[in-house]
Structure formats: C-alpha cells, structure tokens
Specification:
80% helix, 334 residues, mainly alpha, Na+/H+ antiporter like fold, 16 helices, single chain
Length: 334
C-alpha cells in the first residue's frame, strides 16, 4: 500500500471532512443536541454490527492461543498505556490539559481491526491470528479502556458516574451483546452487504468526530492550540509511533514468536482504534473537552497508516518471508 493510497483511504477522507465541516459549521446550541443524538444512534449501530461480525468461534480460538494473546493484551493495555501516561506527563507543561490528556487516552485504546489485519496480510503475517487478536482487543477495550484510563489519572471533566456507565452499557455493551446473540441469523446478510456496512462504520466514527470537534471549535481550538503546540503534538505522536511499532516488534522477538505471528503481533500491537476511541470520547467527556482529547488519536490514526505502509512493504520483501530461504518452521495456527 503506497503513501498515495493511504491519502485516498475512505475513512481518512471522511474524518477530514468531519473536521472541516465542524470547523466551518460547528454544531452548537440546540443543533449540538440533535447532532449528539444522531452520533449516539450511529454508535449503537456500529457496535451492533461489530457484535454480528466477530464470530464466537474466533473469540474461543483467540483465547486458546494464550501464548500470543496474553502478551498482546499486556502490551496494548499495559506497556502502551504507560507510554501514553509518560507522553501525557511531558505534554502537561507544554499543551492544553485536555490535549495532553489525549495521549493517556490514546495509550489505553485497543487496536483497530481492519488496518491491523490488512497490513498483516500485506506483510506476510498470520492473518487469522491478527483478526482474532485485534477483534478480542476491541472487545476487551469496551470493558478495560475506561477503568484503565481513570486508574492512570485520566479524569478531567469526564469522571465516570452512573450516567456515563449507563451510556457505555446502552451504546456499546448492549448492542454488541445483541449482535453476538443474533449473528447466527445475520451472517449471510453481513457478508452480502459488507461494502455498504463499511460506510455505516465510517459514518458512525465521523459523526462522533464531528460532535467532538464542534465542541472544540466552540471553545476556540485554533487560539488555544497554537502553531508551536501542533509541532509539540506531532513530536509526541512520532514518539508514540516509534515506541508502539519498535516495541511491538522487539516484544514479538523476545517472545520467540515465529515470523508470521510476530508480524501479526506488530500490527495488532501498534495500531490504535478510532472506531472505539472517537465514540467513547463523546460518551466520557462533554463535546467541548472531547474535541481536544481526540486530537492525538486522530493524528496517530493518520500517521499509523502512513508508517505501516512502508513497514509492511519492507517485511513483505524481506528474504526471511515464508517460502524463502532461512524461514523457520510453519507458523502457529490460531
């Protein structure tokens, strides 16, 4: 996948469009309430579809491969969360508090299923293991991200009370559970309409970003986040990308995973999910704060695709890829 292909990615185009529309026509006053209702409905549908798509047999298979799954969970929700905490601490003295807090929030998020799987496939990794690992991380993220975020000091005005817990149950956990319950009846429909359903996913994420960024625009994001601040944010995002990708690759080596499994570990461990992060931010925080919180996530989401493309190409052309001389035993199956 080339850099040009990354720039034409439909999800990235929709995220950029949501930010541009929010900058020009932010949802304020009564309009914000209506926009939030639309975003909440879209989030419900998004997690309902996730429940329909993630097969129960894949979940069982993922738990069975504990040698891969347990370290991956510890890496994503342990090491990456601590990296986010460290970067948030660095940013506290340089950036607006909500922007700096966004790095801690970013660190506690799960992987993104689609791009982690796609790049693993392009690089010659264990695709089945990548799908299961990223999918299970997303399931765990619904339950783990919020308490982990709070335990590491992420509160702001988004402290979790019963109202927020109720929203998480209603908009994330309930639809996912319903999707799991009915997937035996809906698998054919999901497979038949997969391209159209992908656009529903993109709309739901973009709607959440629009609501969040509208709040940030209303609070004067362009004056509160100056040019030097964007340079600092970019540097911290670059540090996060380096820690995520290099750390995941070295961790896979330390675990002595076979090459295809190590590639799956790399992309599942270094990617971060806007599909979980953007909707959850609008539930945890009021829009005027959520918009600042997701700045780090949106930049990371873009640059993780830019960085992953050449990494996948390099791994795919490596002389140690499957079928080449020097490649070890067949990969472990999930």
């Amino acid at each position: 996948m080339s850099f040009r292909t990354v720039l034409t990615d439909p999800m990235l185009r929709m995220l950029v469009a949501a930010i541009v529309v929010a900058a020009l026509l932010p949802a304020t006053g009564d309009a914000r309430g209506w926009a939030q209702m639309v975003a909440n409905a879209a989030i419900f549908v998004l997690f309902l579809l996730n429940g329909m798509r993630i097969a129960r047999r894949d979940i069982v298979a993922g738990f069975a491969n504990w040698r891969f799954l347990v370290p991956l969970v510890l890496w994503v929700f342990g090491a990456m969360a601590l990296v986010g905490l460290a970067l948030a601490s660095i940013g506290q003295g340089l950036l607006a508090p909500s922007v700096a807090l966004g790095f801690l929030y970013l660190g506690t998020l799960p992987s993104t299923v689609q791009s982690a799987t796609s790049y693993s496939s392009l690089a010659g990794g264990n695709v089945a293991l990548s799908v299961v690992g990223a999918a299970l991380l997303n399931i765990l993220g619904v339950f783990v991200t919020v308490p982990l975020f709070l335990a590491l000091g992420g509160s702001g005005s988004g402290a979790v009370g019963m109202e927020v817990i109720g929203k998480i149950m209603l908009l994330l956990i309930l639809p996912f559970a319903i999707g799991q319950a009915v997937q035996g009846f809906t698998s054919g429909f999901i497979a038949q309409h997969k391209p159209k359903i992908a656009w529903i996913d993109r709309f739901a994420i973009s709607a959440a970003v629009y609501v969040a960024f509208s709040g940030a625009v209303e609070q004067g994001i362009w004056s509160r986040v100056a040019g030097i601040d964007w340079a600092v944010i970019g540097a911290l995002v670059a540090a996060f990308l380096l820690a995520g990708n290099l750390g995941a690759w070295l961790a896979g080596g330390a675990l002595r995973l076979q090459r295809a499994d190590r590639i799956a570990f790399l992309f599942a461990g270094a990617q971060k999910s806007a599909a979980v992060g953007a909707p959850l931010a609008t539930i945890l925080f009021p829009p005027e704060e959520a918009g600042f919180l997701v700045i780090a996530l949106l930049l990371y989401h873009f640059f993780q695709l830019v960085v992953a493309a050449p990494i996948a190409s390099r791994l795919a052309s490596s002389p140690h890829r499957p079928g080449s001389a020097g490649y070890g035993a067949p990969t472990t199956r999930s």
